[in-house]
Amino acid sequence: MRVYVVVELVQGVLGEVRVFRSKESADKTELRWLKEQGITDEIEREGQAQNGTELIVRQSNVTP
User: Fold this and answer.
1) Where are the domains of the chain?
2) 1: which DSSP letter?
3) What angle do CA 10, 8, 61 make, to 5 degrees?
4) Cα separations (Å) of 33 from 10, 26, 39, 44?
5) Would you state the pLDDT for residue 59?
6) 26-63: pLDDT as tens digits
């Protein structure tokens, strides 16, 4: 089974980890986070990441 893992880092500290079954749900979470952070473009996102605040979305396979 494929899942989507969303990891939030706040000033370099693990904030929250969420796992979604659909890419759409992970994408919605990412868009909501970007809006909450006031990030409107890739340059702003990179600037926040350099300060240790970022949201990472990764796809992973889970085997029973």
Assistant:
1) 2-61
2) -
3) 155
4) 12, 11, 9, 13
5) 97
6) 999 999 999 999 999 999 999 999 999 999 999 999 98
| The two structure tokens encoding residue 13 | 């500290």
Contacts 24+ apart (CB under 8 A), 47-52: 51/11, 52/9, 52/10, 52/11, 52/12, 52/13
**DSSP string for 8-64:** EEETTEEEEEEEESSHHHHHHHHHHHHHHHT--SHHHHHHHHHTT-EEEEEEEE---
Residues 6+ apart with CB under 8 A from 42: none
Inter-residue contact 37 to 53 (CB < 8 Å): yes
